[in-house]
Amino acid sequence: MGETTVSLQEVTAETVRTICELAPHGAQSGFVAPNAVSIAQAHFNPAAVFRAIYADEEPVGFIMWRPGDDGASCFLWRFMIDGRHQGRGYGREAIALWLKVLPSQGYRLAQTSYVPGDGGPHGFYLAQGFVDTGETRANGERVMELAL
Ligand SMILES: CC(C)(COP(=O)(O)OP(=O)(O)OC[C@H]1O[C@@H](n2cnc3c(N)ncnc32)[C@H](O)[C@@H]1OP(=O)(O)O)[C@@H](O)C(=O)NCCC(=O)NCCS
Fold first, then answer.
1. Phi first, then psi: what are they for 94, rounded to 5°?
2. Is residue 86 part of a domain?
3. Which of 8, 36, 73, 82 is the most exposed place for a label (fewest CB within 10 A)?
């Protein structure tokens, strides 16, 4: 990835419109909610945390998580890299940054869930060390986890 520095940064009044305009490729739209919807949902879930993903000074994606039901797990709720910026390792780097801070916050397990389908993120999460739990949620999403 050369000299590019990936970071997770707070969304501000100045950047929120730009972050809401980030979107995956059209064919991937079924795999993640629009960022504006995620930020609106976070408004009603005070435990949720969201950050913009930056490559150097450029916003390239969005990540949002919330505590799991048991206190020891952290749930990756939303995650996306804008279509124009995919395939450059930014997603991998952003997940690594997120995973790195979780143990110091008391988490022992990272979880996520994904919509199965062609072009979906299952293979991406496998490559980052997540494993399938075999659980399917009521909404059809499949659960994966990674011990920290
Ligand atoms: C999944 C997503 C975040 C990956 O972001 P990205 O920046 O393109 O991924 P990276 O460039 O960091 O890829 C890291 C590795 O995963 C692989 N990879 C990326 N997407 C993959 C996929 N859908 N299936 C399998 N492997 C994938 C890459 O080839 C790369 O492999 P390498 O380590 O051998 O080079 C991005 O494709 C995306 O935003 N998708 C649409 C939204 C989505 O599905 N979000 C998840 C919601 S649960």
1. -65, -40
2. yes
3. 36
